[in-house]
Amino acid sequence: MNEPPLEPQGPSPEPPSTPVSQNFTHTAVAARVPEKMLRGVFCSGTLILQTQDEFLLDFISTMTQPHQLVARVVMNARTLMQFVPALQANLVKFEQQFGPLRTAGRPPAAESPPPAPPATPPGVTVVSTSESVAPSEAEEGIKPSPPAGPSFHDFYDQLKIPDELLGGAFANAVIIRHTPHEFCFEFIANFFPRSVVTSRIFMAAGRVPSFYDTLRSSMQKYQNRPRER
To answer: Which of 132, 173, 177, 212 is the most exposed place for a label (fewest CB within 10 A)?
Structure first.
C-alpha cells in the first residue's frame, strides 16, 4: 500500500535576530511526570548540605549496607524558605486528620520555632559546608572533647552514589501529598514551556517531623549566617 504524500508544511520560522524576554506563569500542579519518575523512590534518611547560595538535599536508603543515595535535589534559598512553612502546614493537617506524629517532649508542628534548634534525630543528618570554624578548644586552654561522631566526609566515603545522581536535580517548587502512612514529595522544575517533576520521594510519615526539623534548622543557619559586604 502506497503511503499518502506528505503535505507541505511551509518554511520553518526564523529565529529572532535580537534577544527576546517575556514573563510567563504556570502551575506546578500540571507538571509533567517523566516515565522514569512515575514510581519514585523511598528514602529512610536525609542529609542536607548548605552552601552560600544553594541547599543540597540528599535522600538516603539506609535499609542495606552500604547506604545508598536514591535522590539528590538542589534548590535555592527562596524555594527552601517556601518549602519549610508548607511542610509545617502539611504536618498540622496530617495530625488533625490522623493523630500526632511527635514523640514526647517535642514541640507540635503548629508552634513557632524555638530559639535553639532541636537535636538532630536518628536517620536525619544536618551538614552545613558554609559554617564558620570556631577557635579550637586547645587554643583557648580547654581540654579538647572527643569527636561527636564521623564527619560527613567519612559518611560520604562509605555512601554508594550512582553516577547519574552526582549532579542532582534542580527544583524550584515542591508539591506535598500524604496518606495515613506516607508522605510524597514531588520536586518540580518550573521552566518554560512546561513544569516537570525532577524527583519524586516517598517517606514514612513517622520520619517527616524529623525531616521538617532538619530543614528548619538548616534554614535558620542560612538566615543567621554572616552577610558578605
So the answer is: 132
In 3D space, the residue among 174, 145, 29 whose CA is nearest the CA of residue 87 turns out to be: 174
Quickly tell me which residue has 555512601 as its cell.
159
Residue 204 lies in a domain: yes
Domain assignment present for 104: yes
- At residue 117, does pLDDT exceed 80? no
Where in the sequence is the domain holding 68, given as residue range(s)?
29-129+152-223
Total domains, the chain: 1
- Cα distances from 83 to residues 10, 53, 104, 198, in angstroms, run 47, 16, 25, 16
Q: How far is CA 17 from the centre of its chain?
A: 39
Closest CA to 32 of 225, 142, 191, 207: 191
> DSSP class of residue 195?
-
Exposure of 173 by Cβ count < 10 A (0-12 exposed, 13-18 middle, 19+ buried)? Answer: buried
The pLDDT value recorded for residue 40 is 95
Res. 195: pLDDT tops 50: yes
Q: How far apart are the C-alpha atoms of 24 and 209, rounded to whole Å? A: 35
Task: Give 144-174 as a DSSP string.
Answer: PPPP-S--HHHHHHHSB--GGGTT-EE-SEE
With H, G, I as helix, E, B as strand and everything else as coil, classify residue 186. strand
- Distance of alpha carbon 195 from alpha carbon 37, whole angstroms: 14
